[in-house]
Design brief:
Layout: H1 8-23, H2 28-64
């Protein structure tokens, strides 16, 4: 998306206005839900990557035998 406005002040105003109008419609419950889901996603991703690493290590050991 290539979106250019003629002046930097105008683009800052548009982006700032968009952000401030969006932030007023977001409730605190939505922010808490987002934080909890982000933490949960990071934990699941970490566990999956550790399990895959162990799985690959196990497969490599079995191939050597």
């Amino acid at each position: 998306m290539n979106f250019q406005l003629p002046h930097q002040n105008l683009s800052a105003g548009v982006l700032g206005g968009t952000f401030l109008s969006a932030i007023t419609h977001i409730g605190s419950e939505d922010i808490i839900t987002t934080i909890v889901l982000a933490i949960l996603g990071a934990i699941v991703s970490f566990i999956a990557s550790v399990m895959m690493k162990l799985f690959v290590k196990t497969i490599k050991k079995q191939r050597k035998k």
